[in-house]
Structure formats: structure tokens, C-alpha cells
Write a structure and sequence with these properties.
four-stranded antiparallel sheet; alpha/beta; nine-stranded parallel sheet; 402 residues; TIM Barrel
């Protein structure tokens, strides 16, 4: 946000505070402002201001605020069973001058729920995890600590539903439930009964007090013996993408009744495939982003294969993969949808994690999220970044940085 402010009869020792919806608040002592831009006194330099001369009144100030973006970590479902571990991660967020958000599993990869659902099918499935903390009370406490809270909701990978309702599952030719590489069943994304079940659960999540709901596994299966899957429905690019698009349309309609932001995770390569292509999983940026506030491509450099983006070994080019993927995503999302990537907090050392932050911020991402399936994060990743040249040399062995 950019604007001009003018003041009359303001004491010189006054402090200027500027805030706006969707932007960071920034503060400056008026006595220190000059004609050169002055960064706000925050680790992330979230605003800048300068005096404007000549000024027709006593004081004129040119102000720029940085857009607000969630900078967070993922907290997996298993950690909800350990109150001590959960609050250790929250204390790390509070210690960090950078972090301001957490992503918490509410319906995880195994189809378990982190709250007591009144949805009849959920009661029938008995898929309630018994965490050691009360989810609603935890959300209230996180809000008291000024932490933005995102609910991660796995949609179509749903072993309890597939196991107990095989007629709603992805199946093999003999009618048995198909399993992915982890030995888990999936609900059939073509089936409206599956949509209705998930949408009913999502309405309950929206009522729990989360700031945002994030959809994951918003697609057809991609790993395992996918060639043995036989759908009763016609399975084409057109029907797959139509199914995902219609689910998203209904999700958007349901969520419009609640004060909650929405987002979706997609494969990192999704933003790079040719327009119209769905990688055989029904997942396309153009079908998803008209219905959400944020797109979170999972641009983990180690998951890109040799040749992707023109690199012989993409995992050794973390800055380039993140920067270019964010910029690519920004060009493909629907108007009004912002890009906030998932970054990789595994396999890499601390400088390689930090340079992903730098790349996302250089690309103008609206925040970022770090993923570690076990919920382990080194504190040092979330402090002030080293000087650009130092960080570049630590990762690439050279100071030849952009």
C-alpha cells in the first residue's frame, strides 16, 4: 500500500503508526524521518516512510506498507496427541521475529479428525483422533498470542471412508479398494456423496474459529499402481477437472457464509504444465484458484526431477526453483488469488532452508509455509536472514548472486 499523509500542529516527538487491512502495521518516530526512506523498526522491514518537501502544511510523509503474509510452520496430526510437543512448537513461533502462523492438521493423511464431528457419516466411521488438547481452546489461545491459525484438511485421500464405504472408494477391476504406496485407500473424487461428506465436515471446521481452511489432496491418486484403478465413471481429463472444479465451486459457496479465508495445496509442477493439462490427477490452477484466497504450490526443490525447469539437478538449485515457481504461479492464478508457497524443511541444511525464504520473498510471495512431516524445525531458519552474499556463498559456494 502506498499513500501520502499530512499533519498540522503535530509535536515533533510524536510517533507515526500506520495500519490497513491485509497490510502490516508500521511505526516511525516523526523526529527521525527525513527525505531518505526509513525502514520501519521490525526484523522484516515491513514498511518505509520519508518526509516530502516542500510541504504545504507542517509535515508531509510518503508511506509504503508491506502486504501481510502468513509465515508459518506445519503441525502434523500426531503432535496434537502430545500437548508438550505442540506448545513447544508454539513457543518457537513466539520466539521467532519472523513467524506469525501455524498450519494444523484437522483431517489428516489417514482420514482422522481432530474434533468431535456431528456429521452422521463421521460418527459411523469412528474416525476421531483423541488429541491431548482441546482444539477450540487451543485456537483461542493462539489468537490471544496473535498467531494466525490455518486448518489443513485432506480431502480425497481418506482411508476410513474408503475402507468402510467401498462403494465410495477408488477401486480395482474386481471391486476391491485400491491402495496407494502407503497402503491407504482413497475416496472417489467423482462421487457427490464424497463431496457432501467433506463439505459437511468443512462447515464444522469453519465454525471452530480458524482464520483459514486449507485443502490438501485435492486431486485424484497419483502414486502407487494407478494403472489398476477402474472407475465406474468416465475417466478423462475433462471429467476429472470438471469434478474438482465443481467440488471447489460448492466449497466456495459453503465457506462464503463464514468469516474464514480459504486456500489449497497443489503439486509444485502443477503451475508449470501446459495450460489445460491436469497431469492425470484433475488438478489445474485455473479450476481451483477462482474459489480460494491463496494458492500454496508445494515447490519442494528435491521433488523436481532432472530436467525440470531446465536444471540437471533441481534440488541443488533451491533459490531458482522457488523464485521461478512463485513467479510462474502468480501469472496463472485467478485475479485476486495470492500465491503463498510451501517450502522444504527436510533434507536441506539451514542455509538451504533460509535461501528458500529469500527466494519466496524476492518473488513477491504473500508469505510462505515450511513443511516437515514430523514437525521438526531448527529455530535458526526463522531468524533474520544472513546478508545475501553470505547466504548465497553458503549454499552455492560463490558470491555471484542475483
Amino acid at each position: 500500500m502506498h499513500g501520502f499523509l499530512a499533519f498540522v500542529d503535530v509535536p515533533p516527538e510524536s510517533e507515526l503508526t500506520v495500519s490497513a487491512p491485509e497490510y502490516y502495521t508500521a511505526r516511525w518516530p516523526l523526529s527521525l524521518l527525513g527525505e531518505q526512506e526509513m525502514w520501519a523498526h521490525t526484523p522484516e522491514q515491513l514498511g518505509r516512510a520519508r518526509r516530502v518537501e516542500p510541504c504545504p502544511v507542517a509535515t508531509c510523509v510518503d508511506v509504503r506498507l508491506a502486504p501481510w503474509g502468513a509465515r508459518g510452520i506445519y503441525i502434523p496430526m500426531g503432535i496434537l496427541q502430545s500437548s508438550a510437543h505442540f506448545w513447544d512448537l508454539i513457543h518457537m513461533v513466539e520466539r521467532s521475529p519472523i513467524l506469525n502462523a501455524v498450519v494444523i492438521d484437522v483431517k489428516g493423511d489417514y482420514g482422522l479428525l481432530a474434533w468431535d464431528s456431528d456429521v452422521p457419516l463421521a460418527k459411523e466411521l469412528g474416525n476421531r483422533l483423541r488429541p491431548s488438547l482441546d482444539l477450540q481452546e487451543a485456537i483461542r489461545e493462539l489468537h490471544r498470542r496473535h498467531i494466525y491459525v490455518i486448518a489443513r484438511f485432506v480431502v480425497f485421500k481418506d482411508n476410513p471412508l474408503a475402507t468402510h464405504k467401498p462403494e465410495l472408494a477408488v477401486r480395482r477391476e474386481d471391486g476391491t479398494v485400491w491402495k496407494d504406496r502407503e497402503g491407504l485407500g482413497w475416496a472417489n473424487p467423482f462421487r457427490e456423496e464424497v463431496w457432501s461428506y467433506n463439505l459437511a465436515l468443512l462447515e464444522e471446521v469453519a465454525q471452530l474459529g480458524f482464520d483459514e481452511i486449507q485443502l490438501d489432496y485435492l486431486r485424484f491418486p497419483s502414486d502407487g499402481d494407478v494403472g489398476s484403478i477402474v472407475y465406474q465413471e468416465e475417466n478423462t481429463r475433462e471429467t476429472r477437472t470438471a469434478a474438482i472444479r465443481e467440488f471447489m465451486r460448492r466449497f466456495h459457496a459453503r465457506m462464503s457464509a463464514y468469516n474464514v479465508k480459504t486456500s489449497a495445496d497443489v503439486f509444485g509442477l502443477t503451475v508449470w504444465v501446459a495450460p489445460g493439462e491436469d497431469m492425470y490427477i484433475g488438478q489445474r490452477v485455473e479450476d481451483i484458484t477462482p474459489y480460494i484466497d491463496f494458492l500454496s504450490p508445494m515447490i519442494y526443490p528435491s521433488t523436481f526431477i532432472p530436467g525440470n525447469l531446465g536444471y540437471e539437478n533441481p534440488s541443488q538449485r533451491p533459490y531458482e526453483v522457488i523464485y521461478r515457481s512463485v513467479r510462474q504461479a502468480q501469472q496463472r492464478v485467478a485475479p485476486g488469488t495470492r500465491v503463498r508457497p510451501w517450502l522444504q524443511a527436510y533434507w536441506y541444511d539451514i542455509p538451504e532452508m533460509q535461501i528458500q525464504r529469500l527466494a519466496a520473498e524476492d518473488a513477491g510471495a504473500d508469505g510462505w509455509l515450511f513443511w516437515n512431516a514430523a514437525g521438526y524445525y531448527p529455530d535458526a531458519v526463522f531468524g533474520p536472514l544472513p546478508p545475501r552474499g553470505t547466504l548465497w556463498a553458503q549454499v552455492y559456494g560463490t558470491n555471484n548472486h542475483p
